[in-house]
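Late entry, evening session. Most of the bench is empty. Finally got around to the prediction I had been postponing all week. Sequence below, unchanged from the version circulated by S.P.
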Amino acid sequence: MSQEVIKEVIAAYFANIAAMNPQGWIDNFAEDAVSYDPVGEPPAKVHEGYRQFIGQLQAVFEKLEATTEHIFIAANEAAVKWTMEGVSKSGKSVKFAGITIFEVNAEGKIQTTRAYWSPAQMIAQLR
């Protein structure tokens, strides 16, 4: 697995979240992909719940912008330090950060994500 393929799929993952593009986002994942987002919550089968995830973003946010600050790649996995900034539909600004571990399969699709961040910190900014 080349580092370029891994970087491309990660860039597409974040770009499609920011665009709130459900089909583009799901296209990055293997059919049997699982997401732990955030770690500590029950894992989600991406292809079964992706519209709900993007739908939640669309319901809350007017704008989202992701910045990948660091990408560390080893074999077919990458750890990504990221920051997300957004504006809610009610005009409130939010900024939150985290680290997501991506496992990419041989077809260049995301097999597993493990996201380390605090939804509670983001929600507090929306109040």
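Two things to note before I forget:
The mean pLDDT is 94.
Residues 3-18 form the longest helix (16 residues).
Will write this up properly tomorrow.
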